[in-house]
TrEMBL record:
InterPro entries: ATPase_NBD, ROK, ROK_cs, ROK_glcA. GO terms for biological process: glycolytic process. Signal peptide: none annotated. GO terms for molecular function: ATP binding; glucokinase activity. GO terms for cellular component: cytoplasm. Its EC number is 2.7.1.2. It holds the Pfam family ROK. The gene is glcK. Keywords: ATP-binding, Kinase, Nucleotide-binding, Transferase. The keyword Transferase applies. It comes from Moorella mulderi DSM 14980. Gene3D superfamilies: 3.30.420.40. SUPFAM superfamilies: Actin-like ATPase domain. This is Glucokinase.
Length: 318
């Protein structure tokens, strides 16, 4: 018996077969081709799943369920994608459509929630029952797990840390709000701030260019560049403060930082820990682990497979 985990992104569909112990048996990827419409995307998912199964000498009947993480807001109970701008989807009944296409039970959730589940099952979150995972990328995604289960609130978009408000009248966010965490601390925000400093005449060993990204800024900061360090420190200060607020609300056992910038390691993790501790102050009763995610871009596949497993277990209990 195995499970199909699908990580549906705006540009790439990643999928894999995972056994019930959480071991990734095989994985593959194809372009999403979102502009061709939802039907074409689902067709590519089904073809990829069939190819993966055949490669393992399995029939589709050997796959017992599928889970899928998508970049958008999901009404999980109905398997309905409310809004996924990267896929051009609005109010799309993904679970029903994909279940019909794969002939499998399907569980759907937001990709950041799914990644948190994957890290808890097989990654940096192993051994913890309650954790908060924050993924830093173009935006900031987050997933909250309490007592082993994803918590998403009544409307399915709870634990949306990227849009908690940090600065009144702060930078404009694409969500329509101002001063959201992701306008201050995402990879995009780091690059924007660095460019603003350069444009204002501040000097750095790192030069601007079309390929300038958070990775280059973090590398320069690790090498001691003062301006890059200041930019990383600014982002980390808001991440630390936002995490402290979340910790005071929900009290997780551990925090996991994912996304490209987290792979830079201590250059960003250390200041996040510093500002988290500073913001918690006397409320830091015992040390709270702040760990880098371990699964990289396999977290979405493994977490989605776990979502499928939970769906099957839930069904059996009725
Ligand atoms: Zn926002």
């Amino acid at each position: 018996m195995c499970l199909l985990g699908i990580d549906l992104g705006g540009t790439t569909i990643k999928a894999g077969l995972v056994d019930i112990k959480g071991r990734l048996l095989v994985k593959g990827q194809v372009p999403t081709g979102a502009a061709e419409g939802a039907g074409a995307v689902l067709e590519r998912i089904a073809t990829l799943a069939g190819d993966l199964a055949r490669g393992q000498g399995l029939a589709m009947q050997d796959i017992k369920g599928a889970g899928i993480g998508i970049p958008g807001s999901v009404e999980v109970e109905k398997g309905l994608v409310h809004l996924a701008p990267n896929l051009f989807w609005r109010d799309y009944p993904l679970r029903a459509e994909l279940a019909a296409r794969l002939n499998l039970p399907v569980a759907v959730d937001n990709d950041a929630h799914v990644a948190a589940l994957g890290e808890m099952w097989q990654g940096a979150g192993q051994g913890f029952n309650s954790l908060l995972m924050v993924t830093i990328g173009t935006g900031i995604g987050s997933g909250l797990i309490i007592d082993g289960h994803i918590r998403r609130g009544v409307f399915g978009y709870g634990a949306e840390m990227g849009h908690v408000k940090m600065v009144r009248e702060g930078p404009q966010c694409h969500c329509g709000g101002r001063g959201c965490l992701e306008t201050l601390a995402s990879a995009t925000a780091m690059v924007r701030r660095f460019r603003e400093y350069l444009a204002a005449g501040q000097s750095s060993r790192l030069q601007d260019g079309p390929d300038l990204g958070a990775r280059e800024i973090l590398t320069a900061a690790a090498a001691g560049d003062e301006l890059a360090t200041r930019v990383v420190d600014f982002a980390a200060s808001y991440l630390g403060m936002a995490l402290a607020n979340a910790v005071l609300l929900v009290g997780p056992e551990a925090i996991i930082i994912g996304g490209g910038p987290a792979q830079a390691g201590e250059v960003i993790l250390a200041p996040i820990r510093k500002y988290l501790a500073e913001s918690l102050g006397a409320w830091q009763i015992k040390p709270l682990p702040v760990l880098a995610a371990r699964l990289g871009n396999e977290a979405g596949i493994i977490g989605a497979a776990r979502l499928a497993l939970e769906l099957l277990e839930h069904r059996e209990s009725f």
